[in-house]
Amino acid sequence: MIPSNFFKLIFVTLLTVLTSGDLLAQNGFVKGTVTDENGIFMPGASVRIAAINKATVSDFNGKFILVNIPKGSYTLKVEYLGFSDIEQEVNIVESKATFVSLVLTSKSVKLDDVTVLGYGNSGQARALNTQKNNINITNVVSTDQIGKFPDANIGDAVKRIPGITMQVDQGEARNIIVRGLSPQLNSVTLNGSRIPSAEGDNRNIQMDLIPSDMIQTIEVNKAVTPDMEADALGGSVNLITRTAPEGFRLSANLGSGINFITDKRILNGSFLVGDRSKNKKFGWMLSASITDNDFGSDNIEAEWTDEFEYYTGVDDADGEPILEEVSVRPYTKEFQIRTYLVQRIRRSFAANFDYQFDSNHNMFLKTMYNWRDDRENRFRLEHEILDAEDIEIDDFTVTNNVLTRFPVEVKRQTKGGIDNSRNKNTRLEDQRMQNYSLGGDHLFGNVKVDWMASFAKASEERLNERYAEYESEYSVNNDNSNPEFPIFTSVNGIEANDLSNFEYGEITEENQYTEEEDINFFANVEIPSDLFGKGDGSIKFGVRSRLKKKLRDNSFFEFDLEDSFPTLSGIPTRDYTDPDFLAGSEYQAGVYADERWLGGLNLENGESVPDEFLRANFDVEEDVLSGYAMANQKLSEKFSVLGGVRLEHTMIKATGNQIEDEENVIGEITEEKSYTNILPGVHLKYDLSRQTIFRFAWTNTLARPNYADLVPSLDVVSSDEEIFVGNSDLDPTTSMNFDLMAEHYFKSVGIVSGGLFYKKIDNFIYTFRGETTNDNFGSGTAGFDIFQPLNGDDASIFGAEIAFQRQLDFLPGFAKNFSVYLNYTYLTSNADGIRNESGEEREDLDLPNTAPNMFNGSLGYNDTKFSIRLSANFSDAYIDEIGGNSFEDRYYDQQFFLDFSASYAITKNLRIYADLNNITDQPLRFYQGISERTMQAEYYERRLTFGLKYDLFKN
Q1: Which residue in 129, 217, 832, 906 has the most C-beta neighbors within 10 A?
Q2: What pTM was computed for the model?
Q3: What is the CB neighbour count within 10 angstroms for residue 245?
Q4: Strand-pair category, 397-399 with 361-385
Q5: Is 226 within 8 Å of 236 (Cβ atoms)?
């Protein structure tokens, strides 16, 4: 699928590099590293030779280079927030490299003679200096900032950044929403290489897969530059792994804890070791992390309706039952009580190496392997109102338009897995993500070249996932007096608790496998240029390819064991009723098939159930070829501009199934599509002073459709009069973005900032629910309900962000050790072109996943020994899924998390810590239409962890 012209472009790029390197090679250059006293590389350092107006910024590895310098002696000056300025004399020789190693000294060390305090601030300084000296609008968080919060995975750490909110799974932050845009509309990269998705039907990156202690820096690019991939509608999150230190480093963490919902243990441990050879050419870093968390959740779920019909007892001339409609207030037509028991083991391994061949050439290899086992048992009690033709006049009660009594079908379901050393009678979800990147940085004369090739793979495997379900029917009293906590109670308690009344429903086994592979390559060339005669600038251009394959292969089998296990009373059972059920003691889970019994069954010769998997299976290939050119120039000593354009060409080949009645495969459908996007951008930066900066950006970005939406599947379900259609003709969602930001950096390491942003979005994608008007999908399909992803018209987002972060060192006495971290984001949005089930356009509809208000805050205290922090995170309610009408819309409710962390330095290198998470016992909650109407409420309780951290530096 790759055009030959792309290889020609790569060849021309390399030829340009090799032939242009000598053009500016008559002068010399300075190359070096910037570290702190512990040998930790310092990114974002401002390095300047004032005499010739040359300046640059150190990269994430603390490295810098100044090219095209006339021979002679100069004073090199380095500036860094929170550290003393340093100056060093350098002697430039024609056509030669001058290498310098610069060591920054913390101001706190000089003032207080306390090394621990100085090191404690260095990570925050690294992050803010990087953010300050970037030309584009970013938020940067360092590893030790992450460590100040009780965040086990990278998703929980990211949620504390301005404009970020997270969707949780089993109490952990999983899916990232940037500036109100859905997870699939944002990109997540590892060291600049795109992370593939293990999700089956979307592009979401599971942020809870990566432990926070494996990452050195988090960089959120809210305004991307032309040298970055453009599929980042909301923003691009780059996770930067740890690199080899300047000297020996050993770090370890050993901890434990307890989940109060299950009173079961938590185990965690990690280590990091790295060094550099005596000649400083070869560096290495090895790290690993493991967390074993035994927990669970208590859950209630409901589905609401405002329609009710019953059978009059009379049939029409065709023998069809005549139904009578009754006017009722909204009520729960389905209600569930769920108990989850989960063991989540998260492992991560990384090995990073670099080699400096000489002052002009170095290469690196970065690897990471993440592996998570998620073992789950779920016990579900489900009540659903009977179909209208099965309800007669004496079966229900309506009082003042409130439906208070009706018959239901009741199901008691156990979810588990086979009995072996891996599954352990649970549903085992095996998720893995691996990334291997080989790259290099080179200097040909005065031309800088960097390149990287990477292979990444993500997979999710769920084998031998089993369900046992037993069914009954009885009448319930429906209590919706408090719609936030709806409840069904049986009219006849004896009948409901008699296990012999629960008859065999089904025993099934399911297998799921999803895999995504990415092969990436990019090459960048940067040439010094001073177009306006105002100082250092550059022209940069490059190419990139991303070759992606995604497949999903599921199967589902049903077993006829009714004769062997006719009722629930005849098999081993367990009672999961909990008087401390977090949603309320009135919710009684009851008795279910024992998961050990289910796991021990010898299930053979099952009958395939195609309607459970045929529509889900697909195969997609997506190749993206791109190139860009940009110029970064100074217009004056304080004013700089970066402008450029990016071109991305996308080629897609998607294969899905054509299905009849959910189970008969008519054949496969394969369709191809390609499109090209031209994406210009401009970034302006004005330095009012060394500490005060104004920024403006105009950018253009895109988001490609979800894989499941692109697959050209067709499923005509005649029995339900429903049609499900894919749409390979979907256009990518595009956005024109405007950003304005003002920042003031405190010399004592801190920031106050404020900004506005606006996004004009075209062709956003939503699922249309309508009705066919003809027989295009087969004879007799007119009037069927149809579900298909479509492009909407347009949408817009306007928002504002403010942030304040500072140690209160201006206060007297011990109060100077307090620090404050605050940020707030406001969003408003609207979406046009979304139609309801009647085909009418809906008005005043927000774009899904745009939380109007988001807030983060923490108050901390840190002296030479003791550190303590109370942290809060709030995100407002927002529409999560658009229904057929406003009554059916699903909303993700507001969340407020409160966490506490404390640590004490026993020695300079050894620290004891304790963290308490989710003090507010915040549930995951969805509601339908209005906030009082609960659709789901899932509770996790609090979690306590504690342990020891050891960190040793030796230069």
Answers
A1: 129
A2: 0.88
A3: 24
A4: unpaired
A5: no
Distances (CA, A) of 815 to 120, 746, 861, 863: 17, 18, 8, 10
- Compute CA distances 66 → 300, 558, 687, 770, whole Å: 61, 68, 21, 62
C-alpha 69: how far from its chain's center? 44
User: Tokens 């079966």 belong to which residue?
Assistant: 395
Q: Which two tokens stand for residue 849?
A: 């996943």
Cα–Cα distances (Å) from 126 to 211, 435, 736, 750, 952, in that order, read: 21, 25, 31, 11, 19
Assess contact for 880 and 851: CB atoms under 8 A.
no
- 390-405 confidence digits (pLDDT tens): 999 999 999 999 999 9
Overall residue count recorded for the chain in this entry: 955
- State residue 40's pLDDT score: 80
**How far apart are alpha carbons 555 and 607 in whole angstroms?**
11
Contact 902, 891 (CB under 8 A): no
Q: SS3 for 643? A: strand
Confidence (pLDDT) at 118:
37
- Please give the full DSSP string across 899-910, using - where no structure is assigned: EEEEEEESSSSE
Cα–Cα dist 83/109, whole Å: 9
Whole-angstrom distance, CA of residue 270 vs CA of residue 249: 14
What are the tokens at 911?
A: 């620290």
The pLDDT of residue 110: 35
Residues 6+ apart with CB under 8 A from 908: 115, 116
Scanning the structure block, which residue is given the tokens 């501009």?
A: 641
Helix H or strand E segment including 934 = strand 934-939
- How far is it, in rounded angstroms, from Cα 262 to Cα 296? 7
Distance CA 381, CA 408 (A): 12
Burial of 335 (0-12, 13-18, 19+ CB in 10 A): buried
Instruction: Identify whether the C-beta of residue 559 lies closer than 8 Å to the C-beta of residue 510.
Output: no
Tokens of 316: 């029409």
Q: Reduce the DSSP state of residue 313 to 3 states and report it.
A: strand
- Does residue 583 contact residue 298 with C-beta atoms inside 8 Å? yes
Distances (CA, A) of 931 to 485, 584, 845, 879, 936: 12, 19, 16, 11, 11
Give the pLDDT score at 162.
Answer: 80
For residue 209, give the DSSP letter: G
Residue with tokens 């940085």: 441
Q: Which of 11, 276, 133 is nearest to 690 (CA)?
A: 133
The confidence score (pLDDT) of residue 95 equals: 78
Top pLDDT among 929 and 193 is at 929
- The closest alpha carbon to 515, from 458, 469, 442, 580, belongs to 458
d(CA 639, CA 633): 9
**What pLDDT, on a 0 to 100 scale, did the predictor assign at position 19?**
47
Residue 243: closest CA among 58, 118, 110, 61: 61
Residue 52 confidence (pLDDT): 86
Bridge partners, residue 925, by sequence: 937
H or E element in which residue 497 lies: helix 493-497
Q: Is the pLDDT of residue 67 over 90?
A: no
Task: Please name which of 535, 803, 747 lies closest in space to residue 80, comparing C-alpha atoms.
Answer: 747
**d(C-alpha 955, C-alpha 952), whole Å:** 10
Q: What is the pLDDT of residues 251-293, one digit of tens each?
A: 999 999 999 999 999 999 999 999 999 998 999 999 999 999 9
pLDDT of residue 151: 62
Whole-Å CA distances, 514 to 198, 424, 429, 517: 6, 22, 11, 10
Tell me whether residue 951 is exposed, middle or buried, using C-beta atoms within 10 angstroms of its C-beta: 0 to 12, 13 to 18, 19 or more: middle
β-pairing, 639-660 vs 714-717, is: parallel
Q: What are phi and psi of 886, to 5 degrees?
A: -65, -30
- pLDDT score recorded for residue 955: 57
pLDDT for res 852? 92
Q: How far apart are CA 648 and CA 8, in angstroms?
A: 16
Query: Token pair for residue 294?
Result: 């035994």
Contacts of 4 (CB under 8 A, 6+ apart): none
